[in-house]
Amino acid sequence: MSADSNPMALYEQLxxxxxxxxxxxxxxxxKADVDxxxxxxxxxxxxxxxxxxxxxxxxxxxxxxxxxxEDHDDGDDQVDPWNVSTSSAKGVDYDKLIVRFGSxxxxxxxxxxxxxxxxxxxxxxxxxxxxFSHRDMHQILDAYEKQKSFYLYTGRGPxxxxxxxxxxxxxxxxxxxxxxxxxxxxxxxxxxxxxxxxDLSLExxxxxxVENARDIIACxxxxxxxxxxxxxxxxxxxxxxxxxVVKVQKHVTFNQVKGIFGFTDSDCIGKISFPAIQAxxxxxxxxxxxxxxxxxxxxxIPCAIDQDPYFRxxxxxxxxxxxxxxxxLHSTFFxxxxxxxxxxxxxxxxxxxxxxxxxKQIKNKVNKHAFSGGKDTVEEHRKFxxxxxxxxxxxxxxxxxxxxxxxxxxxxDYRSGALLTGELKKCLIETxxxxxxxHQERRKLVTDETVRQFxxxxxxxxxx
Amino acid sequence: MSADSNPMALYEQLxxxxxxxxxxxxxxxxKADVDxxxxxxxxxxxxxxxxxxxxxxxxxxxxxxxxxxEDHDDGDDQVDPWNVSTSSAKGVDYDKLIVRFGSxxxxxxxxxxxxxxxxxxxxxxxxxxxxFSHRDMHQILDAYEKQKSFYLYTGRGPxxxxxxxxxxxxxxxxxxxxxxxxxxxxxxxxxxxxxxxxDLSLExxxxxxVENARDIIACxxxxxxxxxxxxxxxxxxxxxxxxxVVKVQKHVTFNQVKGIFGFTDSDCIGKISFPAIQAxxxxxxxxxxxxxxxxxxxxxIPCAIDQDPYFRxxxxxxxxxxxxxxxxLHSTFFxxxxxxxxxxxxxxxxxxxxxxxxxKQIKNKVNKHAFSGGKDTVEEHRKFxxxxxxxxxxxxxxxxxxxxxxxxxxxxDYRSGALLTGELKKCLIETxxxxxxxHQERRKLVTDETVRQFxxxxxxxxxx
Lengths: 464, 464
Known about the structure:
globular; EC 6.1.1.2 (chains A, B); aa-tRNA-synth_Ic (chains A, B); aa-tRNA-synth_I_CS (chains A, B)
């Protein structure tokens, strides 16, 4: 089939010509060359539109489930593993993200089913749509109903010693899943990734991995059911893990990671091959000490939605190497103190509440930096009411205040103007201070020996 | 600086536009598009020539020491890790290769120096220019003179159970080096590479690695000084090895491996990152069981010249990650029975003498397939003499016949016509048959336990 009648072929031509144009422009080519290259590109775009009825979009081939999600603007929302931003004060439009990523909404039916199967009240993150999207969760539950268990996999990129409260979200929820489903859990610390992406030494990245593991353990995970591993250690401790990495690496091309992650020719080969290392823990035989050589134990990955590109790639590869696709539960982002346009970032001290903050620091940060949905004066506020939808303090309360009725009352009172911004902030401060203090207490009790135990490859308790 | 006056910028444009043209052609774009793209390319090439005074060549940027060796035609010689071919019956022009690769010739002075330092007669591969090129060998010897030792690293890609006599060349020579210098040796079996490049399962590649190790051990390596490792095993057994892999991966871009190895966007990410895995054993702290955390033990790599691209890359990266550059000794190729235009290949049974061949098979193959430099009739041969320079049987004798005088007599007699082709072949057959039989005998004595011992990470004898 010639490109005249083959959308994919024409798409590939356009991609290549687009690269050529960008290169010529980047290198400040002379005007005639730029014009000629652009003319050709425009002509090819017109051909493409005529053939497919659609506008050509970089990174969105006419077919191919793996690549159809990236480089696509929904308003100004940008969501990938390295960037999250939006122009809306309410934060990213998650309903649109579900459509774009091709995942499924966590609806009331699914929440009810989890409640029914586990016999537990659904976690507030489920009740409040903080975990809002999934892939194949019904498949996990179908199997679970038939006494066929699964395992959990989540992770963290240890880019510094400092973790903030936003980092806790997947771990708080994963701990709950572990408790209510009674399943084993593996937690990947991607210290190799941080070394590849950041200007840090291997030694520092590994040290951060161990320090962060301490905070993760302080979330209360069950030693008998939890294995925490650093890539820099576990890769060198498990031929089975490396075998799965190589299997994935054989079945993903540079074109694919370029489409999914936006890598360029100037990226180092470590970044280019890294996605396979985040993919491999999705397959149970990467952990022979837990699952032997079984490949039939499905994996469920709770993570923030920005990590989904890794697992779309993983799900695309899985059947081609004879493995089960991992299922996913996606959370929204934890907003920065300054507003929901970006997520909380450890590299900006004022945007974050750190797990090491004192009660005083928490109070000051919330009072000084938390973006308010209130009115400018008390009078106006009393008259017109505040807007909890853009108020960061209220958003944080939806994450951390357990009592649904109390939260709803705060929402209504804030909207009506009965509750002032200062009072709302006080409410948040009084929720965060004991929560963080308790975390700090638990962390103190995590000894080096405990960390070592969690990070030692070993058998876990697993009923299946 | 605009591309009009910047050779590198123009080179990058040309590269991108070249990719675009290839893509459009590959996808069978319509004629007008192809023409437009090609016209632009030609114009840019003319600009490039005007600016640099040189013809544009893909993969040869105007500057950049790492990339200036590939995709370069010297006559018809092609030499890279996956292809070796030439149009000359004498084989590749190795003097030109030295210039192209920027290595140094192994001259008589170096051979004499090795003899003086070790107190041994130089190996026939050195006496006869079979190991013909080096990098930094004088540095190795300078240090050795000052009682500072080094270690040897060589390897094999196990693509099948069958090894042929050509595969033995680096191992025969490496064993000699190990004996005369009394140094430790690591041998990498790149089973992961073969999985990535070939249509083979991981299990088969690993099995071939172990089977090939048996043949390598049969060359007589000293268990106390030799560690043989499969990547699929050792990567999962040594965090130190993986750390060095990641270090190299951080310091090499896709652009670089594209220039050095000719990778494309359609290659899998495993191939793209693999060169780091072949690089890592060049650094002594990849083997803490042997060298602890020392990084000051220099590495000497005996290998066929087609492996040099991996180590040019390694030498480029080494100082940037704080390591010593490995030194190299390069061998010529072992020619196919059909002639020196290509090297012996395990995938063509008739081009190779296998280590498993019977005396009868050896006799038949040499008689039937070995390309002859003799004349068509006995009368002509007696009158005009034969040409040993293109005669494969004679070439093989230069590899395997130890006696220099006997070899020289054969050469002269063949050239004069005193020795007939049949007689020359008989001479080779009588050299190969006992050599291969002895190898087979030694191989039989290599037990599973012996293989296991060689392949177990452990301390080696090392005086330094």
